[in-house]
Every structure is written in structure tokens, then in C-alpha cells.
């Protein structure tokens, strides 16, 4: 079981604006910011989560990974998947799969996919039947 995931981004301000908007419909918000003064190496890290626990991190300090990164976040229902997709597109994301059933995974798999400013594939998914 994963505790958290983190990856590098090329422009922390652009990515922060994108993730602030895209994750809000899923109930995620910025929980923690680790500043360059705190890290001692000049890097900045932003931790997003629910209920005060950051489990989704973005940060500076190296080249962004541009190939193969896929992160899926559980959505509480299908409406929040739809809202995530709309918010992510409005924040500059690129459509990589409109909200809908993906029955090839299982009958109630409802997901949406967007590409973030660095080319990462972000998904919101609900496994609920409604």
C-alpha cells in the first residue's frame, strides 16, 4: 500500500496553479509546503491531500519526468470525476480521455484523464456504481 507519491515538475508556480484547480473537485488541497530554506538544497515541495495528510507531492530540484508517469486519484463519485476533468482543462490541462465508463477494467470503473503542464497523465477514478 502506498503512503505517498511525488514527482518533479519544471515550473512549480504553473504546476501549483494547475493542481490547486484540478484536485479541488476531488477534495484535495495544499496541505504542506516545504520551502528551499527547509530543504537546504534549494528545492520546493508541495504536498496535497485530504484531512491534513499530504499524499500527493510535486517538487522542484531536478528534471521533470516526462515519460510514463501516471497517477490515479480516487474520486468520491462520478460527478467529482466530471468536475475534476472540467477544472483540469480550465487550468490548462490537455484532455487525455473524457469522463466515462471504462468497462474493460470493470463494470463500474468511471474515469477521466488529463495531461498536466509537464506531460504527466493524471486520472480521477470512481469505482462506485453511480
Automatic annotation (TrEMBL):
Q: Which domain of life is it from?
A: Bacteria
A Pfam family this chain is assigned to: Glyoxalase
Q: Which InterPro entries match?
A: Glyas_Bleomycin-R_OHBP_Dase, Glyas_Fos-R_dOase_dom, VOC_core
Which positions fall inside the VOC domain? 1-127
Q: Which PROSITE patterns match?
A: VOC
Q: What is this protein called?
A: VOC family protein
Organism from which the protein derives: Tahibacter soli
